[in-house]
Every structure is written in structure tokens, then in C-alpha cells.
Amino acid sequence: MFRSISVLLLVLVLAVASTSSARADSKSGQAKFTGPRKEKVMVELGDKLKLKAEFQMIEVGRLAAISVNAKIKNTSSERMYYSYNVAFFDKDKNLIGCQCVPLQVGANGDSTAGTFIQLPRDEIAKIAYYSVALHESDKQIGTK
Questions:
Q1: I need a labelling partner for 135 at 20 to 30 A (CA). Which of 44, 79, 94, 111 fits?
Q2: Could you give the number of structural domains in the chain?
Q3: In a domain, 88, yes or no
Q4: Is residue 121 in some structural domain?
Q5: Computed from CA positions of residues 24, 25, 29, 31, in that sequence, does the dihedral angle turn out positive or negative?
Q6: Residue 35 is part of a domain; what is its CATH number?
């Protein structure tokens, strides 16, 4: 009897685990921006979705910002949803700025994500670290 219940529980756990297709990947590292288009930080991550992001200080008119543009390649044969999250921190790991982009990309398709994070120039000079998270799923991020 105990063995039957154990096998049934194991089958249920495996069934639930196999239906959950949400995955997450993240990376963090050092970053420093001393002026527009001087330094770049390149980050790649993902499983079925391959994200290639590039961070650098830019000027948008008279405004200062950090560009967080990314290219996304869907290597699967199904529509995939994602949430691309990026944040920048000072040397004490206090948040300076962040952005979240939830989108989708068709089967075997390409997409772009991100734009820029507008910040005061003196805050950009304080950036010491970045952190990126990519959540990907065959269902819209945040749904059951």
C-alpha cells in the first residue's frame, strides 16, 4: 500500500514538474560608465531564448541614459514569452535604475527588447554593478 502511494506521488510530482515550462537565467557583474559610448557591457543568457544584451551610456538629445538594448533569438519551434529585467547598482549595492520588458517572440523568430534608462549623469557615474534576469516560458509570464 505504501509503495503504491509513493509511486502515485512520484508520478504526480513528475507530471507537475514536466508541465511547468517557465525557466529563469540571471547574471550579475561589474559595470562602469564614464561617458557616452565609451564603455560597453555585453551579456548573454537564456535557454530556449538566447538573449544578447549590450549596456552603455548614451545621450538622447541633452539627456543622459543607459541603453539596455537586447536581441532575442527563439531557438524553439513554439511561441515563447519572456520578461527581460535589468538593474544597475552603486558600490554599496543600492539600486540606481532598472527596467523590465515583458514580451513574446514567435517560433524560431527574432526580436528586440529594451530601450534606455534615463538617469541623472551623477547617478550614472556611481554605477558599479549590473544584474540581469531573463524569465522565459511557453505561457505568458505571470500566468498559471
A1: 94
A2: 1
A3: yes
A4: yes
A5: negative
A6: 2.60.210.10
Per the domain annotation, does 101 fall within a domain?
A: yes
Angle at 27 between CA 25 and CA 28, to 5 degrees: 155
Cβ burial of 132 (10 Å; 0-12, 13-18, 19+) is: buried
Is position 83 within any domain?
A: yes
Write out the residue range of the structural domain in which residue 127 sits.
23-137
Classify residue 103 as exposed, middle or buried by CB count within 10 Å of its CB (0-12, 13-18, 19+): middle
Q: What is the pLDDT of residues 105-135, one digit of tens each?
A: 999 999 999 889 999 999 999 999 999 999 9
Q: How far apart are CA 124 and CA 117, in angstroms?
A: 10
- For the record, the C-alpha cell of 37 comes out as 559610448
Closest alpha carbon to 141 in 46, 25, 22, 26: 22
